[in-house]
Amino acid sequence: xxxxxxxxxxxxxxxxxxxxxxxDGISAALQLGWGLLQGGAxxxxxxxxxxxxxxxxxxxxxxKGSHLNRLGRVELxxxxxxxxxxxxxxxxxxxxxRNPITLARQIMEHSPHVLLVGEGARRFAEENGVQLCRxxxxxxxxxRERYLRIRAGETELVEQEFAxxxxxxxxxxxxxxxxxxxxAGLIVAGTSTGGTLDKYPxxxxxxxxxxxxxxADSQLAAxxxxxxxxxxxxxxxxxxxxxxxxxxMNVEQAGQAALGDLERVxxxxxxxxxxxxxxxxxxxxxxxxxxxxxxxxxxxxxGVESQMRPQRVAR
Length: 315
Prior knowledge:
Helix content is 32%, strand content 25%. It is α+β, with helices and mostly antiparallel strands.
């Protein structure tokens, strides 16, 4: 059975000055994950560890570096799903959890539930040994600066996050995710986010919702989505793409068809996709999307703009 890994660090209006930071962050995470997968690690461990690396990188809007909500607090969402038994775990609007993707996996493996939110999710983390942290450990200067600017009246920052024009872009959207297939044919998807700029307290986007931001089925494919969550939710984008694969489309066609659904609701975003034959792709309709893909056939590639470039990874 062939293996493959595809990851993303967000589909949005990435500023020119941040391109290299995003390339470096994606390259490091792809090297970590691809090394694990080639070394015999399962898809579940590979996806969790790769997403953790992206959560720990303050370049991206997940874990450390997440957006502040309207009250100046950090609320995190994440989900993970394995495709053999269609098991899934998710967490939403949780605070003080350093790596929400790990909490999502604990929920999947050690509770009868799929989704826990808020204080209940934090309590479950504490009871199951998931690392907690201080709120300020997740906060970086960029997020606080933009929060203060929005509170001072610069509400256009929210609109610019996914804008097609590249002249003005002070927003930041870096939802992260990974999909993988391992040597046993298990397909897994995981997604994590700090949400959108100036979100209302308790707002939940697509990332923790199975079928919208994350889906995996080892008989078909897996997808992890990123972008404007409200649009992705309304078209159930991850499952929509996989249903297209079930109907006979290849991964590239399925990704583009799912974007067509998103555009029906004027949505902006993207996704990474892997099918059961280890074909992998990324699709997006935003100005840029940080992403990396590694397959045995084509090697490793990374990119933020429309073209991807080869990436050397250690074996």
